[in-house]
Input
Amino acid sequence: MSYTKLNRSAATLTKNRTEGSVSPFSGMCATCVDGCIGMCEIGKSAYRGSEVLYPQPFGIITAASEKDYPVDLSHFTVLGTAVGAHGVKADPDHATFEKVSVATKIGVNKDIKLKVPFIVPGMGSTNVAKQNWKGLAIGVAISGGILTIGENVCAMDEDSVIENGRVVRSPDMENRIKWFQEWADGYGDVVVQSNVEDTRLKVQEYVIEKLGVETVELKWGQGAKDIGGEVKIKKLAKAQELKRRGYIVLPDPEDPHIIKAFERGAFKEFERHSRLGMVEFDSFMARAEELRAAGAKRVFLKTGAYRPADLARAVKYASKAKLDLLTVDGAGGGTGMSPWRMMNEWGVPGVELWSLTYEYCRKLDEKGEFVPDLCFAGGITFEDQIYKALALGAPYVKAIGMARGPLAAAMVGKTIGKRIAEDQIPVYVERFGSKKEEIFVTASDLKNEYGDRFEEIPTGALGVTGYFTRLNQGLRQLMAGNRKFNLSLIERNDIASLTREAADISKIPYVMDVDQEEVEEILNS
Output
């Protein structure tokens, strides 16, 4: 069995000529014919080179791996019980699913209150994030979740003011923070991330000192790739400015030969690349203290799908620094311009990575060492996956990270809003009505809650609140079936492995082995 699709993908706008007859180990057509115009990745690479490394069309998409990993969250099942209730009175009139609470608290001092256990991890300077940020920010704020502003925002902002190598103003960053803060009501938080270039520009110091940000996140990486962030630049002047701001820009926008090639249309986009971060214990601890000294009330860390030793470093360093949250992001997904084959073939997948994280935290816990709150991320989109991930990491996991799902909801909401304004509502949507109050199911409640201010809520935000409302209720229903009426009551034995391989990886018992002692006790009573 092959877990990978090679040499053709909608993500790279490529396909095989002989789609029904493809070599499983190379991905090439079984017969590669002289005269083919090159529809596959090899053929397209022949004339577009490194452009074909990245998902396309850049700027209006998010992308995730097509790899069919040997084990994923579908290899677990959520158990249920007909006995008792935890968190409410065990009575049919009390133990109803709407009584379930999915609220949680995060941080060393548990001073971030969440209405929903959802964190939108760092989405930075990519066009697709920027173009949908207002809806995303307001939607997450209203829902009571956490929104993370990712890397490179200030340096990519053409209106940023940078003096003596330090950012002193960024309108884009100001708006991203403001849209969240203006709609937050004491729940959730807006977090600002930092990579190598951001750290050099003192971005986190800027947002703490000037923009009222209380929580910042150190970033080692993400599940989509093990290199720095990339974007594409269509303007020569901007490519040159980004090089001056310290980025790697390819090809060199200051080379006269490259400038001429760009001007005559030989290529249409430059690539901007971030540098690789270098993790070292002493500098990590020093940076955490620098941020606290600058006024940060909370410090997070996000790590990617690196090898187990790096995961152990993340857990241990977060413990030593007494960080407020550690996000662990499994391989396979992304919201930016991650190299396509890297996204498919790099990193430790979610179930394996999260299982290792639990084991490492358990070992620290047994030694009496501080265990930071955890967030698991990596391709999670629906309530059943949320429940399973919370159970896999219980009791340490307090929230689930999701980026592509909320962004998709914001994009759909925005698009429907445009169609309403243009009076061109698609038939699929029009059956629900012609006004946003009719189409968006959360609109009536929000209009009642916010009054005249409701008109300021963009339809992208309505999309996010609708999506989160669905996840909220679905999660509560699953919890009620397991008789767990509070998020903190979720345990690892709330789920079972459906395959022996999943059981071996996760140490979650195989479904046929669950409750064996209790079964014997019942049968022999």
